[in-house]
Amino acid sequence: MPSRASPEAMREDVHIQVTVPYPLREYTRGREAVELQAATLAEAIGKLDDRFPGLGYRILDDQGRLRRYVLAFVNQEPVTHLDPDAVQLRDGDIVYILPSVAGG
Description:
The protein is of the alpha+beta class. It is 21% helix and 22% strand. The protein has a single domain (7-99), classed as Roll (Ubiquitin-like (UB roll)), CATH 3.10.20. Strand 3 and strand 4 (77-78) form a beta hairpin.
């Protein structure tokens, strides 16, 4: 009988990369990319904030949703959900978080 991995074990197998755009690199000590284990976009952002305090605040609002001026992409596909818990990630996914930049 084949063994089934528990949901917790399966989550540990989800290795992703988060590409950090230049405006947010001051919070990642200059790192352009961060490797993480995360099954959802919310979990990935939480782990980013654990590693780089203050980064999560720049991405999520007080309700835990993507800020209005932040766009997220998974494998170059735009994330249409504002709720990062609803965005499931798969092993090898590349997440890109892009805050809009305004100037005058």
